[in-house]
Design goal:
CATH architecture: Beta Barrel
Structural class: mainly beta
Number of helices: 2
Oligomer: single chain
Largest sheet: 5 strands, mixed, barrel
Number of domains: 1
Strand order of the largest sheet: 1-3-4-6-5
Strand content: 35-45%
Length: 139
């Protein structure tokens, strides 16, 4: 079984690009995930994890996720490698997002839940947006 559940803060706004073969949207971003424990006298450490979101999930991330925002991601780990133009091999491990969630607490006067008016109560997978009613949201 390959399932990853992460909660952390975006280190940058999602970057969007499209595949060359079938023009599919893909959003990439990095998530800073705090480690559970810190050594005494030291600051808590964080791991920086690369996230990739495809199609409508990627579109949702690119529209509503911003640098510094706390989010939850459910997905799977993927490894891949390629050779560049100079013949050098590259390896990468990343998480492919299958579900995405807002994890920040709601601030006074915040209108970030306006996405619900646009997308209704659909459940996010690779093909649909993740939304929910305000009663079900953690903020």
């Amino acid at each position: 079984m390959n399932k990853v559940i992460l909660m952390g803060r975006l280190t940058r706004d999602p970057e969007v690009r499209y595949t060359q073969t079938n023009n599919t949207l893909v959003a990439s971003f990095s998530l800073a995930v705090n480690r559970r424990f810190a050594r005494q006298g030291e600051e808590r450490q964080a791991d920086f994890i690369n996230i990739v979101a495809w199609s409508k999930t990627g579109e949702f991330c690119s529209k509503y996720f911003k640098k510094g925002q706390q989010v939850g991601i459910i997905g799977r780990i993927q490894t891949r490698n390629w050779e560049d133009d100079q013949g050098q091999k590259h390896y990468i491990t990343e998480v492919v997002a299958e579900e995405v969630y807002f994890a920040d607490s709601k601030r006074d006067g915040d209108t970030s839940s306006s996405f619900e008016n646009t997308f209704g109560n659909n459940v996010s997978t690779d093909s649909e947006f993740m939304t929910s009613t305000d009663d079900e949201l953690p903020f």
